[in-house]
Amino acid sequence: MKLDMASQSALLRLSEVDMAIAHIKQEITKAIESPELVELRNRQSDLAGELIAARTVVENFSSAQHRADDDLHLVEERIAKDKDRLAQTSSPKDAQGLQSEIESLQRRQSDLEDAELELLAELEKANVVLADVTLRKSENSLALEALQESIQMHIDELKTKGRKLTADREILIGKITEEVLKKYSALAARQVAVGQIENRSCTACRMGLTANVIDSINALADDELGICPECQAFIVR
Length: 237
What we know:
It is built from five helices and five strands, in the order ααααβββαββ. It is mainly alpha-helical. The strands form two sheets. It has a three-stranded mixed sheet. Strands 2-3 form a two-stranded antiparallel sheet.
């Protein structure tokens, strides 16, 4: 397959550019799928779940404490009313009944006060847990944002390089015949498509070549492309 020397240089450069573009695509994918990024995102999701759970616990204890406080106020009001009625009654029987009810209410008051103290203690613990989860989620969020920003900057740099290489590629393609490009594209889809002979080896497949093969390639006309017998890549001299 024929190709003049200048076009052969363009073909070699095209192969290098295509490999560089492929590498950039791999680097972008690698950056997007960064294990650290995935870990931070998963942790953020887990912490969001923990935060909802912690808030729910706080809300439940807070509601229970408010209900206990309301019940306590009602009992205190009933005790106050019964004491007023006791102070005003002249009936021993009524006084005995009121006194019994006051004592029962006072026991109820004591139980409610104890329950409310326990709820307040549990609420305090729940608030500590909530504050801890909130802090950890905030710290993880900052780390996630910083990493995302860093990754995006890296991706933007890679895309800039990729655009330049793509522009170079268009220029190189214009210097190569359609026949050679067709075979090159088929080769490049599965392997390194263009190589040279260095240290008696093909740089495309890194396989050693015999002296006879090297001599036959070197004996080709200047505008004739060599072919590696091991990988079928074009050999540019």
